[in-house]
Amino acid sequence: MAARTAGKATKAVQIAQVGWDAIRPAPVILVSGPEQFLADRSVRQLRDQLVAEDPRLEVHDLSADQYGPGELITLASPSLFAEPRLIRVANVEKCTDAFLQEALSYLEAPADDTYLVLRHGGGVRGKKLLDALRGGLGGGIEVICAELKKDTEKLDFAAAEFAAEGRRVSAGALRALVQAFQDDLSELASACQQLLADGAAEITEVTVEKYYSGRVETNAFKVADTAIAGRQGEALILLRHALASGQDPVPIVAAFASKLRTMAKVSGGGRSSQGELASRFGLAPWQVQRAQRDLGGWSDEGLGRAIDLIATTDAAVKGAERDAVYALERMVSVVSRRGATR
Questions:
Q1: pLDDT tens per residue, range 229-261
Q2: Range of the domain at 155
Q3: Are residues 159 and 258 in the same domain?
Q4: How confident is the model at residue 96 (pLDDT cuts 50, 70, 90)?
């Protein structure tokens, strides 16, 4: 098991650490990490597992930051009919001293037929409790709910939503969804569930645009993809639509920069295979394939000029020039001409 660093000391983790979708019953379950949506879903999955095992399950909720002495012991005490109990404790990262002391005592001898879930969103508060649990006290497990930051992680998440229901979804539809809902995982999950209700045999990019045309059309990456494809007029229309819909210029420039940086990496990768390029540059295979397709008609000189102009545009929209819209339109036009300035 991996080791964690705590202060100056490094302590080996003695308990199983699993992903949010692999939660399972244990006397104590530490649900850690900043992604609240995944944590909530994971705990719901645990509850469903326990109800399936015994419908008599009693569910109790505590908040560690408003904890009163004796609450945990009271809820964990044996009941008359010996029903199994699930005790969910929120805000452990803000716990009171009373909770910390009593939770540490509870780990010494967890109650029978009781499942204690400790939700810790991050930070140093409650570290003594976490260290004890990770060291093996209480016979627990840790469920890690890390934030999904990379597009590849969000793509994998969305793909899993459809796979769980046995539905086919195109790569283009997944990319469109992630681009449209990249800032909120719960919204992305809700969008996937709505699309699953559609009766189409396969979820495609057309299906996504039918439901979320406004979100997709105004997305910064949609503008970038259209410009890179050489469709200047359409790209300028999408840019103006994005700005009119409230899109901030900075993320639009960032989308162009991300796309062209990937193209430059792949262009400099020589004759390496897609798999080799993906491994070398930390990309998904579909990103390499997309970049190779986008590079059609581009020269190294044109790519360099476009990247230089994107850097200039980034400064412009952050205050270096008076007219940010003009700077954006200039960038879109040059990229649409594959780096030609006139």
A1: 999 998 898 888 778 777 788 889 988 998 999
A2: 148-217
A3: no
A4: very high
